[in-house]
Fold this sequence. Notes:
The structure holds two protein chains of two kinds. Chain A is α/β, with parallel strands linked by helices. In chain A, 53% of the residues lie in helices and 10% in strands. Chain A has one domain. Chain A is built from 17 helices and eight strands. In chain A, the strands form two sheets. Chain A has a four-stranded parallel sheet with strand order 2-1-3-4, sandwiched between helices. In chain A, strands 6-5-7-8 form a four-stranded parallel sheet, with helices on both faces. In chain A, helix 7 links the parallel strand 3 (130-136) and strand 4 (156-159). In chain A, helix 5 packs across helix 6 (110-121). Chain B has two domains: 3-79 and 253-280, 2-Layer Sandwich (Nucleotidyltransferase, domain 5); 94-242, ATPase, nucleotide binding domain (Nucleotidyltransferase, domain 5), CATH 3.30.420.40. Chain B has helices spanning 37-51, 81-92, 135-144, 152-158, 174-183, 188-208, 226-236, 249-272, 274-280; strands at 3-9, 13-20, 25-32, 59-65, 77-78, 101-105, 110-115, 121-126, 216-219. In chain B, strands 3-2-1-4-5 form a five-stranded mixed sheet. A four-stranded mixed sheet of chain B has the order 8-7-6-9. Chain B is globular, with a radius of gyration of 21 Å. At the A-B interface, helix 17 of A face helix 2 and strand 8 of B.
Amino acid sequence: MTVEQHQREIETAQHRHARHQGMEAGEVLDTVEKAFAGNPQNMQYFYDLFRDVYCNGIKPHPGKEMIGTMCVQIPDEIIHAAGGVPVRMCNGFYTDEEIGGEFMPAKSCSLVKASLGMLKSETNPYSDGIKVIVNPTTCDQKKKAAGMMREMGYNVYDMELPPVKESEEGREYWRRSVRKFTHEVGKLTGKKVSRKGLKQTIKTVGLAQRAYHRLNNLRKQTPVPILGKDIFMVTNAYFFDDLERWTAATEALCEEIEARVAAGHNAAGRRSPRIVFTGSPPVFPNLKLPLMIEQADGVIVADETCSSNRLLNDMVSVDEWFMYDMVDAIADRYLKSCTCPIFTMNDDRIRRLIELYRSFNADGIVYQAFAGCSVYEMEQRSVAKAMEKEGIPMLYIETDYSPSHSGQLLTRIEAFMESLKARGRHK
Amino acid sequence: MDYFAGIDIGSTAVKIVVIDEDRQVIGNKTAATGALVYKNAQTAFMNLLGEIGLERKHISYLTTTGYGRKLFPDADETISEITANAVGAREVGKPFGTIRTIINIGGQDSKGISLDENGNVTNFAMNDRCAAGTGRFLDMAARNLEIEVSDLGPFHFKAQGTPAAVNATCAVFAESEIIGLLGNGHEREEIVQGIHFSIAKRTIRLVKRVGIEELIYFDGGPALNTGLVAALEDELGRRLVIPPLPQITTAYGAAIIGLESHGFEKQERAEVGEAVVVFSGHGCQGCSCG
């Protein structure tokens, strides 16, 4: 070896990671944009948003006080009312999962590994402005992640969630947890949550939910006017986009999709099976399974995941616009409607799935479980049993963020689509 | 006469079947998949056509299946190996009755498929990212025991003592496991039997996820291994239907699907009207312009 060779410049780990992340995001965006014909024009806003943040290094919310949230259960309304910007930090990057894999047990879930990996890597788009990370006491892995985040030097707030949601004790426990959070978050941001402020943010978040409902309801149509991959892009953008800008962009998209419905436009194929997607959440850029389904001539018409439908479906219902009533109403909206498998009993999830299957006129269900997400893996049995009883075809797929077994996954998905089509012919 | 070809491009071998309008197998071929998947499959296909005295233009419809199904650009249709396997088993199993469960062990995966009375797939399970209990595992074991894969069956029946307890959960660690057993003084026959029972248990656990109903059909290359067949039957307590050529069921199913698709297309053309019928009456063959 010559001295010159020895002095070859080595790319820094940080730079290499940023480059790989950009490549990963870019590849998925290319598929989302270019592998499908006839994307709605108003989707461009969302495609560009992801490209800016994940490929072009534009950091969201410059100069603003960002509050990281690690779960769909952290109330946005309260964070907004305290002058903070909630940013969901559940992460979908395989490059980050690999970093998380260096200090997490091998059999832990991709999402937790990737989220911690992102926080560790310091190339994450939010590294500068995160005031505090609000972490729920949901599954064991998320709970224990709190300690690791503290070790990394982040300020972490434990949001306590009960493991039972049916009991009055559980409900009261959670209400107290939300009341405490309302109090504490104001101290963190320096802006106290006021009655007027909270009433206003319940309204603004409600408007976003209304836009989502308007969009989501259009998917009940036959033929289906929009593909599921685009819906995941819209709902995933809600993780970090400016709330009002997101609402406006979604409303604009609704206008276009309504016109498509009026024109009888079909976004899918002539015989595409209609799919309800459930289980571990697809988070950009891990849209692996949704994209595979739609590239195999299926179409996702509804979902039951915390990165999409569960994020925006249920609204706050307030009796009287006083502080104590609003906060408790927010607490109830988050707890009662939650169909996360971390609860001891989760019959609500089965009911929700059957209802989605029927009201969206679906042909089958695809259930994704991240390897290592023991609660989704365990709940597979009871859900499969219930669906079999109802005569609803369901495909269960255990996977993670790695692209290595896509050939086998595709075989299963195609076989499932073929069996749904054959079933459709015999109906 | 129209002919139809099904090509099953698996992880280890390419299987090709050509059938006629009466669903009779005119010829079949098995070749190694290798790294140049398309080239090897194409060569094997052309060789088979030569052997049976046909040309490419005589094949009215070509269907590909298996992991490499998308790597064969001139296919008229691609279909997943699960559907193709089901169709093939339904046809081949007809003399025995109605096939309701398929156990398939391939080069790198194993599957359980359940069918309804009409032969449609109702459920399936596949192992994933693990070569334990697959053809590759048997390959590895035979190599470590310094015997041929075709000896595995005869060795199974020659075992004197109890079958050795083999874990067989990992193809990579199988080598050290086998060396350990040999070191402990086990006969090779006992080890072979142990491996077969271990694979049988593992496979049945997988297939139980879709439910096991009579008749049960077992195919894929490892179905040629009479020892493994016996182990599966013993563990299940039931007889299995083993086709004469277990490797080619899926390719045969793909050819049948091609025959049916070709029939649909012809029918559709006839329904659309004369203009199109005239067009197809030119003896236009070898392309998929229909």
